[in-house]
Amino acid sequence: MSHRTKSLRITQEGEVVHCILSGDWINEHSSSAARQSWREFWRNSTNSPQTCFFSMDSGLSWDSSLLVFFFDVTGELSRKGVCADLSRIPPKVKKLLDFIDQRRGDSLSQPSYPEAKAIASGSGEKLFLSNIFTYWGRWLQALANFLIGRSFMRPRDLLNICRDCGASALPIVTLISFLTGLTMAFVGSVQLEKFNASIYIADLVSLAMVREMGGLMVGIVMAGRTGASFAAELGSMKIREEIDSLRTFGIPAVDFLVLPRTLALFLMTPLLTLYADVIGILGGLTVGTQVMDFSSIHYWEQTESALTNMWEVYSGLIKSIAFGLIVGLVGCYKGLHTGSDSAALGKSVTSSVVISITLIVVCDAFFEVAFSFLGYR
Amino acid sequence: MIEKVKDLPVLEVNDLQIAYGSKVVLQQVTFSVHPATCLVVMGPSGCGKSTLLKALIGLIRPAQGSIKYSDAELWGTKDSIDPSLLARFGVLFQGAALWSSMSIFENIALPLETFSSLSEQEIREVVRYKLSLVGLHGTEDLYPSELSGGMQKRAGLARALALDPQILFLDEPSAGLDPVNSRQLDELIIELKETLGVTFLVVSHELESIFSIADEALFLSPKEKGVLQYGQPRNWLAESPYSEIRNFLRRNEGCPTFQQ
After folding, report:
1. Do A52 and A170 fall within a single domain?
2. Residue A274: which domain range?
3. How far apart are CA B124 and CA A370, in angstroms?
4. CA nearest A161 in B: which residue?
5. pLDDT tens-digit profile of B192-224?
6. How far apart are CA B147 and CA A128, in angstroms?
7. Are residue A165 and residue A288 in the same domain, yes or no?
8. What is the mean pLDDT of residues B97-119?
9. Is 60 exceeded by the pLDDT of residue A263?
10. Which of the 8 DSSP states describes residue B59?
C-alpha cells in the first residue's frame, strides 16, 4: 500500500487561520516539508491571527507522528497567544492530547524546593577531605577495637578474604613476577655483556626484585584484582541498602566490612611479595642458565652474595605492607562512598584502581627517598 | 517480652524537617505512634516516604525537629545516634537488603550473635522460629540470591524481627509478594501487634493492605512537602477533605482516562 506524503494547507481569513492536514501522518515519512510550510506561514503572516482551526482530510491514516505534530504546534500557538481549535480533529487524538496536557500541568504546578534554614550535617554534601578523615578515624577506631578484642569483625570473614586475596592470587602473581625477572635479565644481559660482567645479572635481578619489583608488581596486581573487587562488592552492598541495614543493627560497616579486608591485605601482601621475589629470581635464573650458559650453582652463589644484607628483602616487605593497606583502604572507601546507581559503581571501581596504583607508586618513591636520606640504602 | 506502656507513645515525631543539602524535601511532620498500633505512611511516589523512614531509623540526620523513642531522643546533641536505641527498632528495607555474602541463617543469626548472649543452640532455635513465622522454614542454608524476591522480603522481615524490637519499620512490605503471601503478611502484622504488642510503621502503596492493617495513617503530599492528613484512614475514601487523597484511594487523579 502506497502512502501519501504529509502536507499542510494553511489559509488565512482575517484573524482566523485554517490549517488542513492531508497525506498520511505516519512515522515512516518525514514531516519536514509540512513543518517547513507551517513555519513559513507564521513567518509571513500579517494582522496577528487570533484563532487557528485544525482539520484533517477524511481517510487520513495517522500514528504517533500526528500527536507529536499537534503537541508541538499547540505549545507554539499557546506561546504566541493564539487559540488552537481542535474540535474538528478525531476525538481520539484530542483525548490523548488533553491527557498529555494535564500531565504537563501537573509537573508545572509542583512547587520548587524551599531552602533549608539549618543544613543537616549528615545529609549535605560533606567536604571530600572531612569524609576521608572520618573514614580514616573510624578505621583506626575499628583497629583499636580489634586489638582490645571488642570488634564486630567475624574471624571467618577474615579467613575467607585472606584466601581470596592471598592463595587465589598465586597463579597471576607467579606469571607476572616470573616474566618480570625474565625480562629484567634479558634487558640487563645485553648491557652487562658489553663490560664482560654478565654474571652480575644475578645481582641485578635479585636486588631489583626484592627491593622494588616484587612489592610493586604484587601491589599493582592487588589493586587491579582485589581492590577493584572490594570496591565493587561494597558498592553493590551500598546500592542494595545492605550497608544501611548493618547500620540499623548498630554494626559499623568499617568494623564489619573494611577491617577484615584491610587486615587480610596487611597479612597477605608481604607473603605474596616474598613469593614474587623468589619467583622473579627464578625467572632471572632461567635466562642465566638457558641463555647465558651459567651453571645454576654459580648463579645461585652470586645471588646469595648480592643478598647478604637481609635489609634489602625487609625493606621490600615493609613497602609491600603499605601497598596492601593502600589497596584495601582505597578499595573499601570507594565502595562505601559510591553513588546510588550502577554507573556510579563502575566509576568507583575504576577510580579505586587508578587511585590505588597512583598512591602505590607515590608511596614507593617516598619510601625510597626516605630510605636513602636516612642512610638505609 | 515487650513491655506494654499504653499511654506513652513509642515514637514521637515533632516538627521534623528533612533536607538534602539546602533542598527541603519534608517539613512540619508531626505524629506519634502508640504501642501495639500500626501507622501506615502513604502518598504518591516522590513524596518523601522513604526519606521519612530513613530519618526515623537514623540514617539521615534531620535539619530540624525531634524524633523520640519512648523517652529517649534519637539525635541528641551528639553527632551520632545513641546505639542503645538501635535495638528498639527493626527495619525491613524495600529490597530486603539481606547481606548477600551470608546464608539466610547467618543473616538472622548475626544480630543475635552480636547483641544477645544466647548460646549457639538457642540462636539456631530462634532463627528457625523466626523463619517459620514468615513461612520460610527450611531455607536456613540457602543464600539470598537463591530466593525469589518475595521470599527475600520475608527473610528480611524475619531478620528485622530477630531482636524482638518494640517497633518495626516496613518499607513497602507487600511489593513483590503474590496476593496470598501479601494477605498472610498482613495477618502476621495484625497477629504480632495483638499478641506481642509490637508497634508497626509501614510505608505502603497497597490500598487493600492499608485498610486491613492501619490503625492510623499519614498521607504525605509532594506539593505540600509534608503531611496532608493524619488520622484514621477508614473514612478517607468518602470523607477526606482533600481531593488528592480521595483520588489516591480511588486510584485516579481525575484526568481523562486513556481509552482505545
Report:
1. no
2. 152-373
3. 55
4. B101
5. 888 888 899 999 888 888 888 999 999 998 888
6. 38
7. yes
8. 90
9. yes
10. S
Distance of residue B211 Cα from the nearest chain A Cα, in angstroms: 28
- Tell me which of A31-45, A204-218, A234-248, B154-168 is least confident: A31-45
Interface of A with B (CB under 8 A): 95-96, 98-99, 102-103, 106, 109-111, 113-125, 152, 233, 236-237, 240-242, 244-251
The most distant pair of C-alpha atoms in chain A lies apart, rounded to whole Å, by 109
- Asked whether residue A91 falls in the same domain as residue A187, the answer is no
Taking the C-alpha atoms of residue B76 and residue B88, their distance in angstroms, rounded to an integer, is: 16
Can you tell me whether residue A20 is helix, strand or coil? strand
Q: Please state the pTM of the whole predicted model.
A: 0.76
d(CA B18, CA B52): 8
Together in a domain, A101 and A158? no
Mutate to test the interface with B, among A242, A246, A254 (most CBs of B within 10 A): A242
Confidence band (pLDDT; 50, 70, 90) for B235?
confident
Inter-chain touch A242–B100, beta carbons under 8 Å: yes
β-strand B38-42 against B64-69: which pairing, if any?
unpaired
CATH number for the domain spanning A12: value is: 3.30.750.24
User: Pick from A47, A77, A108: which residue ends a domain?
Assistant: A108
Does A147 reside within a domain? no
Question: How many pairs of residues across A and B have Cβ atoms under 8 Å apart?
Answer: 112
Domain membership flag for residue A32: yes
Confidence of residue A296 (pLDDT cuts 50, 70, 90): very high
Find chain A residues with C-beta within 8 A of B78's C-beta.
Answer: none
Q: What percent of chain A has pLDDT over 90?
A: 58
Q: Are A204 and A267 members of one domain?
A: yes
Q: Which of A45-49, A50-54, A176-180, B51-55 has the highest mean pLDDT?
A: A176-180
Same domain, A265 and A183: yes
Cβ–Cβ below 8 Å for B21 and A119: yes
Check CB contact under 8 Å for B62 and A242. Answer: no
Which residue among A90, A108, A126 closes a domain?
A: A108
Nearest by CB to B114, from A114, A125, A152: name it. Answer: A152
Whether A19 maps to a domain, the answer reads yes
CA distance A253 to A267: 21
- DSSP states along A185-233: HHHHHHHHHHTT-GGGHHHHHHHHIIIIIHHHHHHHHHIIIIIHHHHHH
pLDDT at B106: 93
Question: How far B115 CA lies from chain A's nearest CA (Å)?
Answer: 9
Q: Are B86 and B58 in contact (CB under 8 A)?
A: yes
> Which of B17, B54, B259 lies at the smallest CB-CB distance from A116?
B17
**By the 8 A CB rule, do B233 and B40 touch?**
yes
- Beta-carbon separation of A119 and B63 below 8 A: yes
**Max mean pLDDT range (A68-82, A266-280, B126-140):** A266-280
Residue A112: what pLDDT?
A: 65
Taking residues B116-132, report their average pLDDT.
Answer: 89
A25 & A163 share domain: no
| A20 pLDDT more than 50 | yes
Does A116 contact B63 at a Cβ distance shorter than 8 Å?
yes
| Contact call for A123 and B21, based on CB within 8 A | yes
Residue at A231 is within a domain: yes
For residue B44, pLDDT over 80 is answered with yes
> Which DSSP state fits A341?
S
Say whether the ipTM exceeds 0.85.
no
Say whether B245 sits in a helix, a strand or coil. Answer: helix
Domain count, chain A: 2
Across the interface, whether the CB atoms of A240 and B95 are under 8 A apart is answered yes
- Do residue A72 and residue A211 come from a single domain? no
pLDDT of residue A124: 45
